[in-house]
Amino acid sequence: MTEPTVVIRPSTTEDVAAAVRRAKQESLPVTVVSGGHGPWSHGSSPGLRIELSELNSVDVDGTTVRVGGGAVWGDVAATLAGHGLAISSGDTATVGVGGLTLGGGVGWMVRSWGLAADQLIGVEVVTADGDVIEASADENPDLFWALRGGGGNFGVVTRFDFAAHRLDGIAFAETRFADPASVLRAVRDLLTDAPRELTVTYMDVPPMDPSAPAGASLSAVWAGADAERLRAVLEPITRLDGVEADITTPAYRDILMEPPVPAEGEEQVPPGFVGGNGLYARLDDDLIDRLLAFRAAYPASVLFLRSLGGAFGDVTQEATAFPAREATWFVMAGAFDIPGLVDDDTRAEILADWAVIERNRIAEYSNFSPTERPEAVAGMFAPAARERLREIKRTWDPENLFRRNHNIVP
Ligand SMILES: Cc1cc2nc3c(=O)[nH]c(=O)nc-3n(C[C@H](O)[C@H](O)[C@H](O)COP(=O)(O)OP(=O)(O)OC[C@H]3O[C@@H](n4cnc5c(N)ncnc54)[C@H](O)[C@@H]3O)c2cc1C
Hints:
This protein is of the alpha+beta class. The protein has helices spanning 13-25, 73-81, 97-103, 110-113, 141-147, 180-191, 227-233, 235-238, 252-255, 285-297, 311-314, 344-357, 383-396; strands at 5-8, 30-33, 47-51, 58-61, 64-68, 85-86, 120-126, 132-136, 156-163, 165-166, 171-176, 198-205, 215-222, 244-248, 272-280, 301-307, 329-337.
């Protein structure tokens, strides 16, 4: 029988623990919501929905930052700016610290400081038994390992402790161009040997996507308020014919995107997504050509590429549950499944094209997998990590109370 949805917005860890104990007692499926951008947060879900938005404190103690499990990254960046600090998170202000960090978190300083999860030094967790425990490298280290990439499978994280980085500012380049193929090749070559202060994102979205300006663009962040250094580093790109770059030194908080907020009472269910994503060891010419052909073939499609390497690649594969530390690029390609734009034939063609593109990926990045696909979960982890994650799941949540996620079945 499907249970009605009960929504709670706890303001303390003890409230979360009491709710989890109740859910366990009554065998209610649990949905945990931090920023609300994940696929399980939209629409009504049966069981108990724990909305963490009131657990949104951001406390700074030296370079240690304790963040409530329901805070959003825009608020974290704004608070840290006042202390000359930053954490590499994602590109969007309204995304939650909870979902992004537990899945990994690829952000604007990923090459400088690694994933959001790589900056994590400890957590407070409400377990499936309703106990409140700490996890870190010294305390419950297996659980701490699993929480860095394994998603919301292991409990409700009520507090994230990060080691933040000193940041005096950033330099930011927005680049427009006519010939994506030459720009992508040049940026690929540049990033094979670039300073790790540089992180870039390539984006090409259709006009119907409200998340970003339409068309192809390359954005770059330099971790440091040094516009001239960024200008010099990007010279192999900006000297190409038809490339125009605008280089500024905004506050880091101000480059985080703000998607439109739904009106009070209005439910914003994002359209489905046909396509996929992958972490790739190399961005070779064949992959570039296939991605550009894909984008050209489907007017409603989007294409995102993000540079990795640097500090992301310094972390060993065994150190966290996140897959593919040898990846140097993250790629996402697909189309919003909007009636009238994507019919059954187009959907089938997109999936066939994506199936070819994904062949060479090392793993799928769970956070950018916007629908629940149980059959895909194995491909989100390194082979050795899969069994370890299942063992840890059996220890901490043998009854699979926390299953509204990319689920690791115990
Ligand atoms: C507009 C947009 C921009 C994005 N940009 C980036 C980006 O730049 N980089 C990137 O890496 N990803 C990005 N993502 C993907 C994003 O990381 C995932 O969608 C993530 O799951 C969102 O986290 P959330 O807390 O907002 O979502 P939620 O829906 O609240 O959470 C997602 C899931 O995480 C789990 N969860 C969340 N909080 C907790 C908690 N405290 N304890 C236990 N489990 C929890 C739950 O299983 C939940 O269903 C973006 C997504 C969107 C929609």
